[in-house]
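User: I'm new to structure prediction. If I give you an amino acid sequence, what do you actually give back? Let's try with this one:
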Amino acid sequence: MEPYIQKILYATDLSTNAAYAFHYALYLAKKLDAKIIILHVVGKMSPDAQFTLMTYLDKKDREKLLKEGLDHVIERIKKRLEIFCEKQLQGEQQVKDTIESINVCKGYPAEEILKTTEALNCDAIVMGAHEKGITHTFLGSVAKSVLRRSRHPAFIIPLPRGEIDVSLHV
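Assistant: Good question. You get back a string of structure tokens that encode the predicted 3D arrangement of the chain. For your 170 residues, that looks like this:
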């Protein structure tokens, strides 16, 4: 039985590592004629931050503020995709056609990555690894947890040594 990958979950924390990993998600999607689902997980607020919000804002204002924050993240991702297409692919339209959806949610990143993979019937996961120290790369706790618990292929992409041009920060 041949592996069948139709949907790729690309998990991003909006870091340089994640921007570099997008190259791989796109490469796989093109080779396999698959779609990419982008996921960014906003970590849960600390109890102190929650208390502060509850103290100064009523429920309606809190919900509005949180929704605006999630909408802002989606807009940043869309802007990064535009920059990526312009800088890396000379405006190639095919990238936009490859993206099935952009999802932003709140929660614990590893949990949400795994839940979203199942809920959206993704066949593989692509995400960046975190580099710590000068010459040694460690997997971050999110990547480790996803690798340990995923029932789907997971591609963890380390940053290469030396200079790379993935300056997609918006």
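You can read the tokens as a compact description of the fold. Here is one thing that stands out. The first strand starts at residue 7 and ends at 11.
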